[in-house]
Amino acid sequence: MRVRYFRPQDFEKVMEIESEAFEEHNPFIYMNFYEMNNEYFLVADYNGYVVGFVAGYQMSETEGRIFSLAVKQDYRGYGIGTRLLEAIMRVFRRKALRYANLEVRLSNVRAQSLYRKMDFIPCWIEHGYYSDGEDGIIMKKVLSPHIRTGVRRVLGKPAHQREWPALKIRNKI
After folding, report:
1. Model pTM greater than 0.85?
2. Which residues form the signal peptide (predicted)?
3. What is the pLDDT of residues 25-47, one digit of tens each?
4. How far is C-alpha 87 from the chain's CA centre?
5. Is there a domain that residue 105 lies in?
6. Among 89, 123, 127, 140, which residue carries the largest CB count within 10 Å?
7. pLDDT band at 10; cut points 50, 70, 90
8. What is the CATH number of the domain that holds 103?
9. Considering 30, 34, 40, 115, which one is annotated as catalytic?
10. Would residue 168 count as lying in a domain?
11. In the annotation, is 115 catalytic?
12. 29 CB-near residues (< 8 Å, 6+ apart)
């Protein structure tokens, strides 16, 4: 299984996965993502067959948003969602984004578990977030702490310098 960028010929498979995973279904959103945010639209390809996808975008100078993540039902539980999340986080880091956020249904305990495993923190609940009235949990993740911070002198006195590990940003997805 490999994660790669979405291509127009993947559209039908992505729509199958999306309609299987989500009650709210709007195929035009995904073509818009491809046209406007193609570098943030990735698919999981298993022997030429699309089995999952993640779509995101840059919402500010410092923050990326994961709009949608889904894995075909028969392929869940094999780490594909984790691989897709890792890949979109690498894309966000390459763009020098410091944070990622997403929302998840209050009832989707399995997805919440995945996000927590990937260090997303539940921040607040948006009541009635979804069109059916269900609440959504907004979750955030710090992507890149300060590479190096510290002040050598504060008010003429030596200050302790704290160093953060340098990030290793790969050029691959």
Report:
1. no
2. none
3. 677 777 777 788 789 999 999 99
4. 8
5. yes
6. 89
7. very high
8. 3.40.630.30
9. 115
10. no
11. yes
12. none
